[in-house]
Amino acid sequence: MIRIAVLASGGGSNLQALIDAWEAGSIKAKFSLVFSNAQDAKALERAETHGIETVSITSKGYAGTREQYDEQILGLCQDKKIDLICLAGYMRIITPILIKPFLYRMMNIHPALLPKFGGEGMYGHHVHEAVIAAKEKESGATVHFVTEGVDAGPIILQGSVPVSAKETPETLAEKVLKVEHHIYPEAVKLFCEGKITVEHGRVKITL
Ligand code: GRF
């Protein structure tokens, strides 16, 4: 049985989508940990409601280095024999200390069609504002493996939505979030079924 840890900083609607798919029996795994860098993250509350263990270590004002912080997460994941880490609105840059041991075993969801509109500073409303400013005809969401480049790892799944002439960052965010809630559980399900491999830096899905 695959053991999953989810790292989240905020509302946790993607976490909720994963939990829902698990409770519906489509993701066959154990959610062993939900970790947050913010004590008041709603994601922690959601996890507790569903009986999932939670840990939070406040990152604001943390005295150590980013590496020391990530070492603590790594320790937790190793203790719990985690197979897959899912970043779900985790608002911190992750260091190689955590990325390397979980290479191709750590996923992220990004609210745009990568490789467009990714990288540092491209998060939350900034992404949707940039998409609208570029007059894109479509946007969407991407699930990808986490590597050392920000938003640069192999793409697992994408889903797109049209961008209308009247679109605002808020309406676009809402549409994209719906896609996220669909493709993230699907990607995790495929991983748990052993259907995802990475060859020469590209994801191969065996159906
Ligand atoms: C999502 O838009 C996701 O793409 C981004 O952060 C947001 C998290 O939303 N990485 P939630 O906390 O899952 O509701």
What does this molecule look like?
There is one protein chain. By secondary structure, the protein is of the alpha/beta class. It folds into 2 domains: 1-102, Rossmann fold; 110-207, Rossmann fold, CATH 3.40.50.170. It is built from 6 helices and 9 strands, in the order βαβαβαβαβαββαββ. It has helices at 13-23, 42-49, 66-79, 96-99, 125-133, 169-192, and strands at residues 2-7, 29-36, 54-56, 84-87, 106-110, 138-145, 155-162, 196-199, 202-205. The strands form 2 sheets. The protein has a 7-stranded mixed β-sheet with strand order 3-2-1-4-5-6-7, covered by helices on one side. A two-stranded antiparallel sheet has the order 8-9. Helix 2 links the parallel strand 2 and strand 3 (54-56). Helix 1 (13-23) packs parallel to helix 6 (169-192) and helix 5 (125-133) packs across helix 6. The longest helix is centred in the last third of the chain and has 24 residues, at 169-192. The structure holds 5-O-phosphono-beta-D-ribofuranosylamine. Residues 8, 10-14, 88-89, 109-111, 177, 180 line the site of 5-O-phosphono-beta-D-ribofuranosylamine. 5-O-phosphono-beta-D-ribofuranosylamine binds next to helix 1, strand 5 and helix 6.
